[in-house]
Amino acid sequence: MKYVLILFLLITGYGIFVIVRDMNRFVTVSYEIRSEKIKKKYTIVMLSDLHDKAYGKQNEKLIRAVEAIRPDSVMTVGDLYTSKTGSGFDNALALMKALAERFPVYAANGNHEHKTAENPETFHHMYERYMEKLEEYGVVTLVNSRLKLPQVNVNVCGLQIARGYFRHFGQKEMPRGYVESLVGPADSDSFQILLAHNPIYFSEYADWGADLVLSGHMHGGIVRLPFLGGVASPSIGLFPRYDGGRFCQKQSTMVLGRGLGTHSIPVRMWNPGELVVVTLLPQSV
After folding, report:
1. How many whole angstroms separate alpha carbon 71 and alpha carbon 46?
2. Which one of 50, 109, 137, 240 is at 20 to 30 Å from 76 when CA atoms are compared?
3. pLDDT less than 70: residues of the chain
4. CA distances (Å), 178 to each of 82, 150, 153, 175, 181, in order?
5. Which residues does 156 contact at the CB level (< 8 Å), separation at least 6?
6. Residues 132-161 as b or e (16 or more Cβ within 10 Å = b)
């Protein structure tokens, strides 16, 4: 019995060590995407699911990491803060301000920004205050809107789907044509990047015409196990199909970041935060 107790304490201690370590570190992961539509090399740093986490004072560790990459732009795919009464966004704003001083920054919403936007009184106008600061910093926000980067022949579109598509316990069916009803048709002559927070609708994004989907939301599955991947999704599902990494369907690629922070379940285990780098290259390079 004594040895069983010792073993239990060792395993528990190790588990706590891994959780504390992974909740306070991030890794950089890189992907290359080639297309005949791309005119020249273009490097993107993608951020997701920060939930107002700070890596160092005012996120100085994240800022230094992005500076070292020297991207052509930074794209965020939502949930930089948490929709919780009394929570703040100081760390998220410090990060966005510093990055916008150095690089073009394009930001899409996640379900947490969307929730605070729909309930301004409940959250003390959190969304409005946050967006005012982003505008002040020069961040380009894309809420069911798009912009063109003609130098590389890229269209960037920020998608905000209804919050009903983020429900717990099951997946709501998305009707055909829904994405187009929000953002209009995809531009087939340009390389189409869709900033879409929820990855479970990758098939619908591919059908719409996305060449590249940048996504988050899943937090890497919270706990990651060898051979099995992420254990749980924010929708209270086990072993989600999309937990993190690169996925392909038809002509589309999805790069799914494992996020940088936590919220309701303050755990990351064998699952450190991720800073994602995506390099677009012409097909001939």
Report:
1. 10
2. 240
3. 285
4. 26, 27, 25, 6, 5
5. 75, 106, 142, 146, 147, 148, 149, 193, 195
6. eebeeeebbbbbbbbeebeebbbbbbbbbb
How far is 244 from 263, CA to CA, in rounded Å?
18
Residue 285: the pLDDT is: 55
For 218-268, what is each residue's pLDDT tens digit? 999 888 888 788 888 877 778 889 999 999 998 999 999 999 999 877 888
Q: Which residues pair with 146 in a beta bridge?
A: 157
Strand partners of residue 279: 32, 43
